[in-house]
Design brief:
The protein contains one helix and five strands; from the N terminus they run βββββα. With 82 residues, it is mainly β. InterPro entries: NA-bd_OB-fold, Ribosomal_uS17, Ribosomal_uS17_bact/chlr.
């Protein structure tokens, strides 16, 4: 089974080698037929500490790194500098 890849915006980079990424998903409400936006925060591993707040990044599912970290930084301004 392929790993999921999500795109989001970095909202926090205060932790060492960890970023918090806000991912937004849009869907049509089944009854009201309006477009609804839902957001969720994911903790991702950033080995190079390169991602900064406001960067648009791609994250991929990975093995559990800690209690909350199950995602790994794949691509973005931070990953390109490596």
């Amino acid at each position: 089974m392929p790993k999921r890849v999500l795109q989001g915006v970095v909202v926090s980079d205060k932790n060492d080698k960890t970023i918090v990424v806000k991912v937004e998903r849009r869907f049509t409400h089944p009854l009201l037929k309006k477009t609804v936006r839902r957001t969720k925060n994911y903790h991702a591993h950033d080995e190079a500490n390169g991602a900064k707040v406001g960067d648009i990044v791609w994250i991929e599912e990975g093995r559990p790194q800690s209690k909350l970290k199950r995602w790994v930084l794949v691509e973005g301004e931070a990953a390109k500098s490596e």
